[in-house]
Amino acid sequence: MQMAENHCAYFHATGRFSDWCAGARHPATDRNCVRSLLHLYDIELYTGVVRSLFHLSDIATMFTPASSIPAAIRDRISAPAQPRVWTPEDFADLGPRTAVDQALHRLVASRSLRRIARGFYDIPQDNRLTGRPTYPNPRDVIDALARKGKVRVVVDGLTAANDLGLTHAVPARISVLTDGRLRPITLGNLTLDFQAAAPSRLYWAGRPAMRFVQALHWLRDMLPSDDGSLHQRLVSILKDPDHGQAIQDDLRSGLSALPEWMRMIVRNLLQQANAGTPPATENPKSLRQAQTPAPIIKSAKRPRSR
Question: Of all helices (H) and strands (E), which one includes residue 74?
Answer without folding.
Answer: helix 69-78
